[in-house]
Design goal:
Helices cover 36% and strands 24% of the residues. It has 6 helices and 7 strands. Strands 1, 2, 3, 4, 5, 6 and 7 form a 7-stranded mixed β-sheet that branches. The mean pLDDT is 94. It is of the alpha/beta class.
Length: 177
């Protein structure tokens, strides 16, 4: 039984600092000028970051090589070592790397700019309606009585509206739903 949504997290497109593209339009032009030359990492085949990269390729009309990793950490290492050109990942990891000056963030995959990084444009500013987010919620056992669902949903909303939860979510790049 669905009880309540809790959070959503968008992805962020980060590129290695030495990549000449400083904006999404510059990146698209670079990729179109050299089809198949550039690489993008993901935390694994079929993950949300992988699907984000594939959607970007399709919507931008570009060709780049997907390099799947077993998790984000080894992919980050290769982006930082200039072995991989770019990566899409859930915002918390790239956000820390961007703030540390280790990568350049070009876009987030929510429809609007993200509150944790308002200086980073939304991909939808360049590719209309481009949106990919992950989300989480609460479910209970099948057949949960409606009164229990309503009580749990109300308590969840109360928690999501609290300052400590909002601050914790913001720190992790999550948006309360």
């Amino acid at each position: 039984t669905a009880v309540s949504m809790m959070w959503s997290v968008c992805n962020m497109l980060m590129v290695r600092l030495e990549l000449p593209a400083k904006t999404v339009p510059e990146l698209i032009a670079l990729l179109k000028a050299s089809p198949g030359k550039y690489t993008f990492a993901s935390s694994g085949a079929g993950t949300t970051p992988h699907i984000t990269g594939e959607l970007f390729k399709q919507r931008a009309g570009v060709n780049m090589l997907h390099v799947p990793y077993k998790g984000s950490s080894p992919a980050y290492q290769d982006v930082l070592a200039n072995q991989i050109d770019m990566m899409f990942d859930n915002i918390p990891g790239p956000l820390g790397l961007m703030r540390g000056g280790k990568v350049r963030a070009l876009a987030v995959t929510s429809l609007q700019r993200h509150p944790s990084a308002p200086e980073v444009p939304a991909m939808a500013e360049f590719l209309p309606d481009f949106e990919i987010t992950s989300w989480g919620g609460i479910c209970g056992p099948a057949g949960l009585p409606p009164a229990m669902v309503e009580k749990c949903a109300a308590l969840t909303k109360q928690a999501l509206d609290s300052a400590p939860v909002k601050a914790a979510f913001e720190q992790q790049g999550a948006v309360a739903m």
